[in-house]
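Q: Hi! First time asking for a complex rather than a single chain. Here are the components, and I think there are two in total. Is that enough to go on?
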Amino acid sequence: NAGVMQNPRHLVRRRGQEARLRCSPMKGHSHVYWYRQLPEEGLKFMVYLQKENIIDESGMPKERFSAEFPKEGPSILRIQQVVRGDSAAYFCASSPRQGQQYFGPGTRLTVT
Amino acid sequence: GESVGLHLPTLSVQEGDNSIINCAYSNSASDYFIWYKQESGKGPQFIIDIRSNMDKRQGQRVTVLLNKTVKHLSLQIAATQPGDSAVYFCAEDSRTGTASKLTFGTGTRLQVTL
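A: Yes, that's all I need. Here is the structure of the assembled complex.
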């Protein structure tokens, strides 16, 4: 059973470009969570999704950030018009239900 | 011994000794707590969890203690090995309705010396 998969693992974008981060949950998991981690800090919750629904986006910046988890395909975290402050590691986690979350390897976004 | 570095607090222990990593949580309504291990360049890896109706839970070489009175959580690692070197985070699950949301602590870096 493959774990949570994220791609790309590393992403470099210039200021003003768009970043698209993908997350494929573990097989059988219908709950997806996105977190952001700055260097030397803990993970910060961004958004919680179930298939085709956003359940909790209280940690998501109001502008430029969006997330989706379509019926088919991976969950996407989209950051429009990136700025240097968006540089971070973005982790996705999945769970079969509320409770234990399994984390992916992360996408390290660098904005130049 | 334990020291506070520039960013993450660091705990240095000798191989074979026991390690104790502490964590304070903020939400008295949280009912589920998890310890994660994060190695450099990787995602957090589940170690052990505990529900608020318990005060102790043991796994293989690890024990988690929960003190709800002072909102304190600790992770004990027995016979620490070099492979235990990593950053350790506690997380609390602060559920609102059906939504599950983990709030992570700042983390502690464990350095195992030979």
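A: DSSP finds no helices and eleven strands in chain A. Let me know if you'd like any chain examined more closely.
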